[in-house]
Amino acid sequence: MTARSLPDFVERDVDLAARTTLALPGRAAYFAELKSTAQLAMLAREPALRTMRRFVIGAGSNLVLTGDFDGLVMKVAIGGRQLVEENDDAWVVRVGAGEDWHQLVMWTLAQGWPGLENLALIPGTVGAAPIQNIGAYGLEMADRLLSLESVDTLTGKPVPLDHAGCRFGYRDSVFKQQGWHLDGQRLITHVSLRLPRRWQARTRYAELAAELERRQLASPSARQIAEAVIAIRRRKLPDPATLPNAGSFFHNPRVSGSLAERLATAHPELPRYPQPDGSVKLAAAWLIERSGWKGRDLGRVGMYERQALVLVNRGGAHGAEVIALARAVQADVSQCFGVELTPEPIFL
Ligand code: EPU
Q1: Which residue in 246, 233, 252 sits closest to 317, CA to CA?
Q2: Angle between helices 206-214 and 222-236 in degrees, nearest 10
Q3: Which of 132, 141, 172, 248 to mutate to test the pocket of ligand 1 (most atoms within 8 A of CB)?
Q4: Residue 299 C-alpha to ligand 1 middle, in angstroms?
Q5: For position 237, what pLDDT does the model report?
Q6: pLDDT of the residue at 3
Q7: Among 38, 44, 227, 331, which residue's Cβ finds the most Cβ atoms within 10 Å?
Q8: Residues 158, 151: Cα–Cα separation, whole Å
Q9: Which residue, among 136, 124, 145, 147, has the nearest Cα to 56 in the 3D structure?
Q10: Which residues are CB-neighbours of 20 under 8 A, at least 6 positions away?
Q11: Which pLDDT score is estimated for 283?
Q12: Can you give the pLDDT at residue 49?
């Protein structure tokens, strides 16, 4: 992109550290904060964009910066939340991708529309939520998403997607495939959620059930569930504002039924979550803790003392230190248990 042809909302040489929750250093050669789809269309008319690396960010809460980015970072800041349909079955809300996820959850609850309460206090934007199919305490984005609107960043053309088109999996969607989000090819502009009128509390996740019992709530309302979830999260997960982090740093690994059985024989207390296909999901936090990494640092980064799955930046760390720690944890978990951990955040 030459200076001459830049739309005026494109900035140069912009610091990204403050725009990500792990606060690692890194700069973007070009940076555009996009408040409307019209701005996206303007960018798409820029010929230099075709040869330039692109990347889309929201609140930067699932991102590891490994250095400078020699391309264009597009920050989605499209706002707006609207009830677009109300029928016998559900309330349908359409939300701008730049809205804050937790504020959306609290707003829907204040309107009397339940359904998102288990996902309270998850950091990040609404547009980022489907990419990794955010989930917590027995509920995930895929359970509530009706459809979304995305744009091809090269052509500026809208590309709507229904639920099936998103190809959701555990912390996974079509956006994590080549040619979608990771290449900056697709940008989510709006998300439509379906909040069921015949709402049923989801309280089976052990830690949530225990918290509700402590609060003596046998049939909790959606707001009470949100309050319980918020309390659990505040207890265990560090606030990025005081201790930079990107949430869970590894996926909970899926292993074969036979490996899970072998491990359980040696470690009967190993948390195991059997899957419909016969595989078994294991708790990465448990494996990390038992490999000796809970509360342990390497350089200026460490695995958090209250939740071993969260990698924290103790201050001033670089991306290389994060990679070194991740590798060390992976190596030790592999050596102790024969299980391979894969990182959950996106590396840029
Ligand atoms: N555990 C340990 N040591 C620890 C922490 C946990 O042994 O330091 C054990 C617990 O005893 C429990 C098990 O690990 O048996 C699971 O722990 P927890 O309930 O805290 O959940 P998690 O599996 O570590 C996942 C999600 C979180 C989500 C919680 C609650 C992933 C990668 N992480 O964590 O999501 O909030 O469940 O539903 O799936 C995120 O994705 O960023 C995230 C925070």
Answers
A1: 246
A2: 110
A3: 248
A4: 24
A5: 97
A6: 52
A7: 227
A8: 4
A9: 124
A10: 26, 57, 60, 61, 63, 65, 246
A11: 98
A12: 79
Q: How many CA atoms lie within 13 A of 232 on its CB side?
A: 24
Specify whether the CB–CB gap between 254 and 341 falls below 8 A. Answer: no
With the C-alpha atoms ordered 285, 290, 293, 296, is the resulting torsion angle positive or negative?
A: positive
Going 132 to 313 to 184 to 7, the CA torsion angle's sign is: positive
What is the Cα–Cα distance from 190 to 99, expressed in whole angstroms? 9
Going from the Cα of 127 to the center of ligand 1, the distance in angstroms, rounded, reads 23
Q: Reduced to 3 DSSP states, what percent helix, strand and coil does the chain have, rounded to the nearest 5?
A: 30, 30, 40
Q: What is the pLDDT of residues 84-101, one digit of tens each?
A: 999 999 999 999 999 999
**Distance of alpha carbon 329 from alpha carbon 323, whole angstroms:** 10
Read off the tokens for 200.
């049923």
Residue showing tokens 């918020």: 230
Atom 9 of ligand 1 has which residue's CA nearest to it? 286
pLDDT for position 1: 53
State the distance from the centre of ligand 1 to the C-alpha of 308, rounded, in angstroms: 9
Amino acid identity for residue 96 in this structure: G
Name the strand (E) or helix (H) holding 123: none
Could you say which of 171, 227, 291, 321 is catalytic?
171
Tell me, what's the pLDDT at 4? 54
Other CB atoms closer than 10 Å to residue 236's CB: what's the count? 14
* 54 contacts 72 by C-beta, under 8 angstroms: yes
Alpha-carbon distance values, 63 to 133, 226, 230 (Å): 15, 26, 23
The answer to whether the CB of 55 falls within 8 A of the CB of 62 is no
